[in-house]
Design a protein that fits this description.
Elements: H1 15-24, E1 28-30, E2 42-44, H2 46-65, E3 70-72, E4 77-79, H3 80-86, H4 88-91, E5 93-98, E6 105-107, H5 108-126, H6 131-141, H7 146-149, H8 156-167, H9 174-183, E7 199-202, E8 206-208, E9 216-219, H10 224-229, H11 231-237, E10 244-253, E11 268-278, H12 289-292, E12 296-300, H13 302-306, E13 313-316, H14 317-322, H15 329-345, E14 352-356, E15 368-376, E16 379-390, H16 392-401, E17 407-424, H17 426-433, H18 437-445, H19 449-462, E18 464-469, E19 473-478, E20 482-496, E21 499-506, H20 507-517, E22 519-522, E23 531-534, E24 545-549, H21 557-569, E25 574-576, H22 583-592, E26 597-601, H23 603-608, E27 610-615, E28 621-625, H24 626-637, H25 643-649, E29 652-653, H26 656-660
Parallel strand pairs: 3-10, 12-14, 24-25, 24-26
Antiparallel strand pairs: 1-2, 4-9, 5-6, 5-7, 8-9, 10-11, 11-21, 12-13, 14-15, 15-16, 16-21, 17-20, 18-19, 22-23, 26-27, 27-28, 28-29
Helix pairs in contact: 2-15, 5-8
Bound molecules: adenosine-5'-triphosphate.
Adenosine-5'-triphosphate binds at residues 254, 256, 265-266, 269, 271, 382-385, 504, 506, 508-509.
Length: 661
Amino acid sequence: MTTTATTLKGQPLDRAAFDSMMRRRMFYTPSFEIYGGVSGLYDYGPPGTSLQSNLLDIWRKHFVLEEDMLEVDCSVLTPHEVFKTSGHVDRFADWMCKDPKFGDILRADHFVEDVLEARLKGDKEARGQTVEEKKKDAKREKKKSKDQQEAVKLDDAVVKEYEEILAKIDNYNGEELGELIKKYDLRVPKSGLQPTPPVAFNLMFQTSIGPSSNLPGYLRPETAQGQFLNFAKLLEFNQGAMPFASASIGKSYRNEISPRAGLLRVREFLMAEIEHFVDPEGGKKHSRFYEVEDIELDLLHRDTQLSGKTTVQKMTIGKAVKDGVVDNETLGYFLARISLFMQKIGIDMSKLRFRQHMANEMAHYACDCWDAELLTSSGWVECVGCADRSAYDLTVHSKHTGKPLLVRQRLEEPRIVQEWDVVIKKKKFGPAFKKDAKAIEAVILATTQEQREKLAKEIEETGKAAIDVPELGKVDVGKDLLAVEYKSRTENVRDYTPNVIEPSFGIGRILFALCEHNYWTRASEGGDEARSVLSFPPATAPTKVLIVPLSSNDKFRPYITKLSQKLRSAKISARVDDSSATIGKRYSRNDELGTPMGITIDFQTVEDGTITLRDRDSTKQVRAEEEKIIAAVRDIVNGDKTWQDIEKELPIFEGQELASR
Ligand SMILES: Nc1ncnc2c1ncn2[C@@H]1O[C@H](COP(=O)(O)OP(=O)(O)OP(=O)(O)O)[C@@H](O)[C@H]1O
C-alpha cells in the first residue's frame, strides 16, 4: 500500500536526502556502528533525544495530566509464567520464511506484499506512464533487483486480485500466506526461487533471570502486562473509584524478523501505553465523550478493506459510535484524543487515518481495534494501536494466580440480575481436556454477556460450542461439558472484571513520521543546492532559539551571555552558534535542526540594545529591545502567539542591513 510521499510543501520527498540530513544532524544513528552495527537498533543524538522528550512531555500533559491517569514504571524483565498466561508465549509471533538458496530470512507477509507491489509497479510501467513518472520510478528503483523492476503487463483481473490481497495483507495467517506464495509463484528476487513455507517465529527475547538460570524470562514486548498485574493496587490507590486509567512510558523489545525502514521497525523501542479500565455494563460510555464528538476522523472500516479497497470515510466520532462503526464511546473518545495529540505535535493531518483491524489481524485478546496510521515514505504505518482488550488480561491473570482482579461495587439497593451464566461440568470437563482444561475454562469464564448469549444459541442449535483458545485455536465443547443458562439472582454487591481500552503509542514511529511530515526544501538564494528545513511547531522543536552573533567580535560577548541567561531562566532552550560560518549558513544549519527562531546580535545591539528575531519558516525578521524579543519568544513557545502576531506587533527588520554594517 505505498503512496508517493511528499514534503510539507507538496514537493516529492527525496528519502535519500532526508535520511542523509537526519544522520548528518544526528537525530538518530545506528547503534554500535563502529562495530558494524546491529540491524534494528538505533541511538538518538542530541536533537532526536530532545525531540523525543518534548513529545513525551506533550503526551504526559495531553493524556496523563488531562485525565488524572496513574502513571507507573514497571519492570522490563518478566518471568515466563506471566507471558505464558497472557498468551504471548504461544501467540506473539510473526510468519517467517527463508530463501532456500541463500538462507536469507524474510517476514512472510512483507515478502508477499513486496513482490505483489513490485509486479503492480511493473504492470503500471508496461501500461505506459508519462516520461516524467518513468524517470522518477527508475531513480527510486535503482537499488532494487532486476526481477522486481521488470515491466510486465498483467491481466486486469490479476491486477484486481493483487490489489485485493494488498488491501487485506494483515489478515492472512501463515498457511494462507504460503498458499499465496504458491498460487502466484512468488519468488525471492535474489535467488529466483520460492521461499520455504511460513513458520511462526515468536518475537520475544528470551533470557534467564538470576545466576542459576532456572527462572526463565523475557524482555517485555509491551508495557501493558505490568499495568495489569498492578491493577488491584492501583484500584486501591484510586480509592476504589472507577473508571480510571493507568499509563506507562518505557522501552519494549521485539526480535523483529527483518527490521527495516529506519526507526519504523526496530528491535528496541519506546512505548507510551494507557490502560483505561471501564465497567463493561452500560455500553462503555465515557463521561467526556461530548467534548470530542464533533471531531472528524478519516476512518478505514474493516469491510472496506475486505472488499479490497482502501478508501477512507470522513466521519465525526459521534456519528461513528452512534452508527456502530466504532464499537463504543470510550474507544471513540481515545481515537479522537489521539487525533488531537497528533495535531498538537505537528503531524500533517492529511496524512493521518484510523484503520480498523480485520478479524484475523486482531490480537488474541481484542474485541475491536483501530490503528492510527501515518503516511510516510514507507507507506501507511501503524503508529498507535487502540484496542478494546475486553476483560481478557485481568481474567487470565486472576485465574492463574488465584488473586482477585475485580471491582467490588456496593449497591445502594439490592437488585435482581438476569444474566447468562456459564456452568462448566467439572467432573467430565477435566478428564475430557486434560492439561488444556484450565486454558479452555479461562476463556469460557472470560466471555461477555453477548458472547454467552451466542454460545447458548450455538449449543442449542449444534449441541456444542466452538471456543477460540489462544494456545489451541478453536476447541469444540459439547453440551455434556458446558451449559449456558439465562438466570436471575439478587445482588447486594456487584463484582465485575473491568474491560480495558488500550491506546498504545510507538514513540519512535511517531517521531520519524513527524520529521518526514515537517521536512521540506527551500531554494537557496545563491542558486546552489536546496536547503532542508524541519518546520516543527515550537512546542516540539528540539531547541527553541538560536543565538547568533554577527561575528566573533568581543563586543558581542556580554550580550550573548546575558541573553543566554535570561532565556535559561525563562526555561527556553537556546543554543549559541558563534562559529565562523556566515550568518546564512548558521541559520540554515539550524533550519535543518528545526529551530523555530533565531536571535542576532549585531553592532546596532551594541549601540541601542536592540536585537533581531528571525522566523525559521518565512525567514522574516523583526527588531526590538531585548525584553520585547524575549517576551515574543516566550509567547511563541507557550503557544500564546504565532509569528504572524509578532510581525504585527514589532517592527519588521530587513536582513540586508546586517551585512552592510
Ligand atoms: N518493531 C517496532 N518498532 C517500532 N515501533 C513498534 C514496533 N512494533 C510496534 N511498535 C509500536 O508500538 C505500537 C503498539 O504495538 P502493537 O503491538 O499494536 O504493534 P503491531 O501491531 O505489532 O505493529 P506491526 O503490525 O507494525 O508489527 C505500534 O503502533 C507501533 O507504533
